[in-house]
Amino acid sequence: MDNLTAMSVPVIVSVVYALIGVITKAVNNSEKFKRFIPLLALIIGAVIGGLLFVFEPTIIGADSGFSAVLIGGASGLAATGTDQVVKQLTKTDTDKKE
Asked: How many domains are there within the chain?
């Protein structure tokens, strides 16, 4: 596994995390939207994985387009998990009481 292949998953996670943050700010932290964040992250990650496979298959390290979409989707869901870890680590005492 070369360096570019090893970096593809963290890059997809970072891009999805940033896009979800921008979209969340654009919809003013709508509670309705927050329910769909994991699904949206999965879709965005899968699209990015598929696009990487189409334009440069060696970067994502997948043998088929289906594998690339799965890798991208899993990376998108990892972005959701990353968001939750950040929220839990930055939670204050007043947040915990509510």
From this structure: 1
42 contacts 73 by C-beta, under 8 angstroms? yes
Task: Give the pLDDT confidence of 37-89 residue by residue, as tens digits.
Answer: 999 999 999 999 999 999 988 888 888 999 999 999 999 999 999 888 888 88
CA separation (Å) from 78 to 40, 86, 97?
Answer: 12, 12, 27
Measured CA to CA in angstroms, residue 66 lies from 19, 30, 47 at distances of 23, 33, 11
- The token pair that represents 73 in the structure block: 């989707």
Give pTM, 2 decimals: 0.84
Query: Can you give the C-alpha Rg of the chain in angstroms?
Result: 15
Residue at 62 is within a domain: yes
**What's the domain range around 72?**
3-85
The verdict on residue 17 lying in a domain is: yes
CB-CB contact of 12 with 81 (8 Å): no
